Amino acid sequence: MTLNIRNALLKSLFAISIIFILTLIVLGIVSVITNKFFFPFNVTRPIPLSNTLFIFRADIIPTFIAIGVLLLYVPVTSLRLYFTFEKTKSTEIYYFIAFLSACLIEGCRFFFPFGNIWYNYSSFFSFITRLIFCARLIAPFSFFLAAFLIATNQPQNADRAYIILFVIGIGFAAVIPVDTFHVLSNSMIAYGYGTTFVAIGICVSLLTFISLNFIAAQRQPALEYMHIPFGYILLIAGYMFLLFADCYVLTVVGTIMLLSGTQIYIRNLHKYYMWQ
Fold it and tell me: CA-CA distances (angstroms) from residue 93 to 24, 142, 167, 178?
């Protein structure tokens, strides 16, 4: 992937995210005006927290804020990546685009309450659920593949690995069973083997963290790269918190971790390549 193509992808991602956000705002307003907005009361919490304290209580507001943070994160970060790495070739940025795309797809969770399609099984209903699952599978693996290609000195295989990543994600999404009557409190429909895939995502994230530390050890004395693994682990942890956020604690903590991790990751990555 050339710099021109990568920069074009970043600009396209920025434009698409803005259009998508504006579309969701219009749909939300229309759903409220036409009384189609609905959020179920009998829901299952993805993370079993106590409902005793207000900050841990499941509520629609922190859930929507968490989704909104992921949505706004995409255009802001894609614009920053474009201006920061416009003339800098970096394998990490190629795969950061895949992560940002996964964050953008989380906005599809708004379609459930805006269209009140919770219990009306349709092709659109199934497509949204599987698309979100695909995005959640791709997000942790995007960083892992970037770290793997760098650690094994195979940046020339980035395009091939990119294609394999999306093929695997789409393949699993096509066959995963969807539980149409199991509504989650984070504005999501449950899918099969949810716990297993969450565990896989956590394991892949930890492997990525280890790989980044291995790369940092190889690139000593480049102190900038030593901070990248810690920025990454904050970033991916914040992302996962926001995926399952249905209370104020998870939303606030996830937002802080995602933004601070992104700042550390991008700033030190730019400093490293700037001195190369």
Answer: 27, 10, 20, 33
Please tell me whether residue 88 adopts helix, strand or coil conformation: coil
- Supply φ then ψ for residue 190, to 5 degrees: -70, 150
For residues 194 and 176, is the Cβ–Cβ distance under 8 A? no
Distance CA(227)–CA(211), nearest Å, equals: 13
Contact call for residues 258 and 76 (beta carbons, < 8 A): no
- How far is the C-alpha of 66 from the C-alpha of 62, rounded, in Å? 6
Q: Give me the residues of the chain with pLDDT under 70, please.
A: 1, 121, 221-222, 276
**Neighbour tally for 243: CB within 10 Å:** 25
Q: Report yes or no on whether pTM surpasses 0.90.
A: yes
What the block records as the tokens of 81 is: 């990546």
